[in-house]
Amino acid sequence: MSYNQWFQEHAAKHRAIMNKLTHLNEQEVIEYFRFENMVIQESEFCPLYAENKKCHDTPELNCYLCACPNFRFNDKGFKQEEDKTLFSTCSIESPDGDQYISETAIHQNCAGCLVPHRESYIKKVFDRDWLKIMSEVPCETNLSGD
Ligand code: SF4
Description:
The protein has about 150 residues and is an alpha+beta fold. It is built from 5 helices and 6 strands, in the order αααββββββαα.
């Protein structure tokens, strides 16, 4: 599955949940998206829920901003770095971010970063429309300028 396919499908799942939560205020919505509640209430939202498994090993994991507003992807690739294509990056260059590097591709690796999973951060960028928060994530730009 491409980044874009995942992104569109996830946006639809997020919207469907939000359509059920119109009676909740912002704080209640954020609390609803805590991992422990989501596993029970929204088992289809994330494939890891079936195993009661977290994507990050942290006691307080909130799933509202899966993915992350700072993630940038381009399914065609941003640029070539020698013989590899760069497909995704972090716009804030988080010190906790990393890269997966294969023989042909470079992808952003967010496994060690908790930025979008912290409720203080979610409150800072909160909008009921997930796509608005994520508006800069899909990129058409080719960074090599070709
Ligand atoms: S490294 Fe952290 S801040 Fe950067 S895109 Fe990944 S989760 Fe977001």
